[in-house]
Amino acid sequence: MGLGQGRDEEDWREAALQACDLADYDEWYARERAERDRVERAAAERAVHQRLPGVPVALDGKDIIALLGIPQGRTLGAAVRALQQLHLDRGPLSREDAEAALYAWAAQRGLGSAVGDEAGSGDPARS
Question: pTM above 0.70?
Answer without folding.
Answer: no
